[in-house]
Amino acid sequence: SEAGLRRLSRREVILAAIHLHAGENDGSSANVAAVRDAPGLHDAVVIGFVRREQGLLVAPGNPHRIGDLAQLAGTGLRMAQRQPGAGAQLLLLTLCAKAQIDPGALLTVKPACATGSDLAQAIRAGHADCGIATRAVADAAGLDFVPLLWENFDLVLRQRDYFLPGPSALFGFVRSDRFRQRAAELGGYDLSVCGAIR
C-alpha cells in the first residue's frame, strides 16, 4: 500500500508489500513507478512476489447478475469498499476512471472494510452486494467471483537489506515447494514472477 512505502521510506519497516494502481500506469508498471517516484527510496528494489486475480466478490449464485463495474453505476446495488490508500481501493478508482464512471455514482456502504476478508463478510452478512478483492478471498468465503484483472503484488526493500536474515528467510521460503503448493490451493495466484527483479 501507499502507507507501506511511506513506512519503508521512514525506515520503520524493512520490507513493504505493494499492489498499486494508477490511471496513467497499467497494472504491470504502477508499482515500479510508485517506488521510483517515492521520496527517500532511491536505493529500493522491487521484487516480484505473485500475480493475483482481482475481481468483484458477489453473493453465491450472483443473484444480481453483476458482470462488471460499469453495471453498478446508478443501479442501487451496494458496494463494499476498502479504506483510502488500500490497493483494492486504488484499483476501484483506477477502473472507474478507465470506464469513465463517476465513483460518486456507486452506492458504497460505510464504514470502509479494513481487509478483503472483512469485505467478504459484509457481502455474506447482506450489508453489501459486491466489492473488490482477490479470487482467494472469494473462494475462502464461499462467494462467487467476477474476474476483472490480474495485478502484480510486489515486495519492496532497500538493496542493502536484501541479505538480512529476515528477508533472506522469506526469499528462501517463496522458492519452496510448500509455498507453491499453498498458492495453488488458494487459487487465483500466478507465481511466474516470483523472485524477479522488476
Q: What is Rg?
A: 17 Å
> What is the β-strand count?
7
Report the span from N to C terminus: 17 Å
Low-pLDDT runs of 5+ residues are none
Task: Summarize, please.
With 198 residues, the chain is of the alpha/beta class.
Which SSEs are present, and which pair or pack?
Blueprint: H1 2-9, E1 15-18, H2 30-37, E2 44-58, E3 78-80, H3 87-98, E4 107-108, H4 116-124, E5 130-134, H5 135-141, E6 144-158, H6 165-174, H7 177-186, E7 189-190
Parallel strand pairs: 3-4, 3-5
Antiparallel strand pairs: 1-6, 2-5, 2-6, 2-7
Features:
single chain; 198 residues; alpha/beta; 7-stranded mixed β-sheet; 7 helices; 32% helix; globular
Question: Mind explaining what this structure looks like?
Answer:
- It is a single chain.
- This protein has 198 residues and is α/β, with parallel strands linked by helices.
- It contains 7 helices and 7 strands; from the N terminus they run αβαββαβαβαβααβ.
- The protein has helices spanning 2-9, 30-37, 87-98, 116-124, 135-141, 165-174, 177-186, and strands spanning 15-18, 44-58, 78-80, 107-108, 130-134, 144-158, 189-190.
- Strands 1, 2, 3, 4, 5, 6 and 7 form a 7-stranded mixed beta sheet that branches.
- It is globular, with a radius of gyration of 17 Å.
- The two termini are 17 Å apart.
